[in-house]
Protein backbone atom coordinates (compact mmCIF):
# COMPACT_ATOMS: atom_id res chain seq x y z
CA UNK A 1 0.00 0.00 0.00
CA UNK A 2 1.22 3.51 -0.72
CA UNK A 3 2.84 5.50 2.06
CA UNK A 4 0.19 7.67 3.77
CA UNK A 5 1.17 11.33 3.85
CA UNK A 6 2.27 12.68 7.24
CA UNK A 7 -0.43 14.97 8.59
CA UNK A 8 0.77 18.06 10.43
CA UNK A 9 -2.63 19.44 11.42
CA UNK A 10 -2.69 16.78 14.17
CA UNK A 11 0.50 18.21 15.69
CA UNK A 12 0.02 19.27 19.32
CA UNK A 13 -3.43 17.66 19.34
CA UNK A 14 -3.28 13.91 18.75
CA UNK A 15 0.47 13.63 18.31
CA UNK A 16 3.60 15.49 19.34
CA UNK A 17 5.78 17.08 16.66
CA UNK A 18 9.18 18.65 16.23
CA UNK A 19 9.92 20.70 13.14
CA UNK A 20 13.34 22.07 12.32
CA UNK A 21 13.76 24.39 9.34
CA UNK A 22 12.06 27.35 7.78
CA UNK A 23 9.22 28.94 9.78
CA UNK A 24 5.87 27.44 8.79
CA UNK A 25 7.42 24.29 7.31
CA UNK A 26 5.63 20.93 7.32
CA UNK A 27 6.61 17.27 7.09
CA UNK A 28 7.54 17.71 3.43
CA UNK A 29 9.39 21.01 3.64
CA UNK A 30 11.16 21.08 7.04
CA UNK A 31 14.86 20.21 7.09
CA UNK A 32 13.85 17.65 9.73
CA UNK A 33 10.47 16.51 11.01
CA UNK A 34 9.51 14.07 13.77
CA UNK A 35 6.16 13.09 15.26
CA UNK A 36 5.25 10.69 18.06
CA UNK A 37 1.94 9.34 19.32
CA UNK A 38 0.85 6.55 21.62
CA UNK A 39 -1.18 3.72 20.13
CA UNK A 40 -2.00 1.19 22.84
CA UNK A 41 1.26 -0.25 24.17
CA UNK A 42 3.27 1.28 21.31
CA UNK A 43 4.58 4.66 20.25
CA UNK A 44 4.32 5.45 16.56
CA UNK A 45 7.07 7.64 15.16
CA UNK A 46 7.11 9.47 11.84
CA UNK A 47 10.39 10.93 10.60
CA UNK A 48 11.28 12.90 7.52
CA UNK A 49 14.36 14.87 6.44
CA UNK A 50 15.73 16.67 3.44
CA UNK A 51 18.39 14.07 2.64
CA UNK A 52 19.17 11.21 0.26
CA UNK A 53 20.65 9.11 3.05
CA UNK A 54 19.21 8.66 6.51
CA UNK A 55 17.04 10.33 9.16
CA UNK A 56 17.16 9.41 12.84
CA UNK A 57 16.00 10.15 16.35
CA UNK A 58 18.09 9.43 19.43
CA UNK A 59 16.82 9.08 22.99
CA UNK A 60 19.34 10.53 25.41
CA UNK A 61 19.67 11.17 29.13
CA UNK A 62 21.66 14.33 28.38
CA UNK A 63 21.85 16.60 25.36
CA UNK A 64 25.04 15.01 24.07
CA UNK A 65 25.79 12.10 21.80
CA UNK A 66 26.99 8.99 23.61
CA UNK A 67 25.10 6.17 25.29
CA UNK A 68 21.95 6.83 23.27
CA UNK A 69 19.33 4.55 21.79
CA UNK A 70 18.88 5.55 18.13
CA UNK A 71 16.26 4.65 15.54
CA UNK A 72 17.33 5.44 11.97
CA UNK A 73 15.54 5.18 8.65
CA UNK A 74 18.14 4.44 6.02
CA UNK A 75 17.74 4.74 2.27
CA UNK A 76 19.66 1.86 0.71
CA UNK A 77 21.06 1.36 -2.77
CA UNK A 78 17.97 -0.57 -3.89
CA UNK A 79 15.83 2.48 -3.25
CA UNK A 80 14.24 0.99 -0.14
CA UNK A 81 14.06 2.71 3.23
CA UNK A 82 14.87 0.37 6.11
CA UNK A 83 14.49 1.05 9.82
CA UNK A 84 17.62 0.21 11.80
CA UNK A 85 18.48 0.34 15.47
CA UNK A 86 21.77 1.83 16.68
CA UNK A 87 23.45 2.57 19.95
CA UNK A 88 25.80 5.54 20.19
CA UNK A 89 29.13 4.65 21.67
CA UNK A 90 30.70 8.08 22.07
CA UNK A 91 30.52 9.73 18.63
CA UNK A 92 30.11 6.42 16.88
CA UNK A 93 26.84 4.64 16.06
CA UNK A 94 26.97 0.86 16.39
CA UNK A 95 24.17 -1.11 14.76
CA UNK A 96 22.29 -3.32 17.25
CA UNK A 97 20.74 -6.46 15.81
CA UNK A 98 17.87 -6.40 18.28
CA UNK A 99 15.49 -3.96 16.65
CA UNK A 100 12.34 -2.89 18.52
CA UNK A 101 10.69 -1.42 15.39
CA UNK A 102 7.53 -2.91 13.91
CA UNK A 103 4.94 -1.98 11.26
CA UNK A 104 7.78 -0.26 9.44
CA UNK A 105 7.23 1.66 6.24
CA UNK A 106 9.40 4.14 4.46
CA UNK A 107 9.74 5.97 1.20
CA UNK A 108 12.34 7.99 -0.66
CA UNK A 109 10.86 10.67 -2.89
CA UNK A 110 11.42 14.34 -3.74
CA UNK A 111 14.92 13.95 -2.36
CA UNK A 112 13.56 13.13 1.10
CA UNK A 113 13.72 10.11 3.35
CA UNK A 114 10.41 9.60 5.18
CA UNK A 115 9.37 6.71 7.41
CA UNK A 116 6.88 5.51 9.98
CA UNK A 117 7.23 2.73 12.55
CA UNK A 118 6.05 1.67 15.98
CA UNK A 119 8.04 0.57 18.95
CA UNK A 120 6.85 -0.67 22.35
CA UNK A 121 6.59 1.82 25.22
CA UNK A 122 7.97 -0.67 27.74
CA UNK A 123 10.91 -2.93 27.05
CA UNK A 124 12.55 -5.54 29.24
CA UNK A 125 15.67 -4.07 30.88
CA UNK A 126 18.13 -3.67 28.04
CA UNK A 127 20.98 -1.18 27.85
CA UNK A 128 20.57 -0.28 24.20
CA UNK A 129 16.78 0.11 24.20
CA UNK A 130 15.36 2.80 26.47
CA UNK A 131 12.00 2.72 28.17
CA UNK A 132 9.86 5.33 26.40
CA UNK A 133 7.57 5.50 29.42
CA UNK A 134 10.34 7.70 30.88
CA UNK A 135 11.23 11.13 29.49
CA UNK A 136 14.35 11.63 27.37
CA UNK A 137 16.04 14.38 25.41
CA UNK A 138 15.44 13.75 21.72
CA UNK A 139 18.45 14.11 19.41
CA UNK A 140 17.54 14.88 15.80
CA UNK A 141 19.93 13.88 13.05
CA UNK A 142 20.14 13.17 9.33
CA UNK A 143 22.90 12.77 6.80
CA UNK A 144 24.29 10.89 3.82
CA UNK A 145 24.41 7.12 3.47
CA UNK A 146 26.99 5.14 1.56
CA UNK A 147 25.72 1.81 0.22
CA UNK A 148 22.96 1.82 2.82
CA UNK A 149 25.31 2.59 5.72
CA UNK A 150 24.98 5.80 7.67
CA UNK A 151 27.85 8.29 7.64
CA UNK A 152 28.36 11.44 9.70
CA UNK A 153 25.39 13.75 10.14
CA UNK A 154 24.96 16.76 7.87
CA UNK A 155 25.35 19.52 10.42
CA UNK A 156 28.03 19.84 13.07
CA UNK A 157 25.76 20.05 16.06
CA UNK A 158 22.41 18.53 15.16
CA UNK A 159 19.37 19.98 16.94
CA UNK A 160 18.28 18.58 20.31
CA UNK A 161 14.98 19.06 22.15
CA UNK A 162 15.21 21.96 24.62
CA UNK A 163 13.74 19.87 27.42
CA UNK A 164 13.07 16.19 28.05
CA UNK A 165 10.18 14.86 26.00
CA UNK A 166 7.30 12.86 27.45
CA UNK A 167 5.29 10.64 25.11
CA UNK A 168 2.29 11.50 27.30
CA UNK A 169 2.39 15.16 26.34
CA UNK A 170 1.71 16.16 22.73
CA UNK A 171 3.57 19.34 21.90
CA UNK A 172 4.17 21.04 18.56
CA UNK A 173 7.64 22.50 18.70
CA UNK A 174 9.29 24.52 15.97
CA UNK A 175 13.05 25.11 15.92
CA UNK A 176 14.42 27.52 13.31
CA UNK A 177 17.32 26.05 11.34
CA UNK A 178 20.65 27.88 11.41
CA UNK A 179 19.69 29.99 8.38
CA UNK A 180 16.71 31.44 10.27
CA UNK A 181 18.22 31.83 13.72
CA UNK A 182 18.69 35.38 14.92
CA UNK A 183 21.49 36.46 17.21
CA UNK A 184 19.57 37.14 20.38
CA UNK A 185 22.52 36.91 22.72
CA UNK A 186 23.26 40.27 24.42
CA UNK A 187 26.93 39.33 24.61
CA UNK A 188 27.06 38.79 20.87
CA UNK A 189 25.43 42.16 20.26
CA UNK A 190 27.88 43.84 22.63
CA UNK A 191 30.75 42.27 20.75
CA UNK A 192 29.45 43.60 17.43
CA UNK A 193 29.03 47.11 18.90
CA UNK A 194 32.53 47.01 20.42
CA UNK A 195 34.09 45.84 17.15
CA UNK A 196 32.26 48.47 15.13
CA UNK A 197 33.36 51.18 17.54
CA UNK A 198 36.94 49.90 17.37
CA UNK A 199 36.91 49.90 13.57
CA UNK A 200 35.34 53.40 13.35
CA UNK A 201 37.84 54.90 15.78
CA UNK A 202 40.67 53.44 13.80
CA UNK A 203 44.11 53.14 15.34
CA UNK A 204 45.71 56.24 16.87
TrEMBL record:
PANTHER family from the UniProt entry: DOMON DOMAIN-CONTAINING PROTEIN FRRS1L
Protein name, per record: DOMON domain-containing protein FRRS1L
Pfam families: DOMON (PF03351)
A biological process from GO: regulation of glutamate receptor signaling pathway
CDD domains xrefs: DOMON_SDR_2_like
Lineage of the species this protein comes from: Eukaryota, Metazoa, Chordata, Craniata, Vertebrata
DOMON domain residues: 30-145
Keywords from the named record: Membrane, Transmembrane, Transmembrane helix
Keyword Transmembrane helix part of the UniProt annotation: yes
Transmembrane segment boundaries: 183-201
Amino acid sequence: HPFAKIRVDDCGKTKGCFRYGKPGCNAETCDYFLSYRRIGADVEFELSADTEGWVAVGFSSDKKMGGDDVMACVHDDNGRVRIQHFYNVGQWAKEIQRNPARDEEGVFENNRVTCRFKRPVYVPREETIVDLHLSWYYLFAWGPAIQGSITRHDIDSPPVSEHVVSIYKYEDIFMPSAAYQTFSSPFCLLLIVALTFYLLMGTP
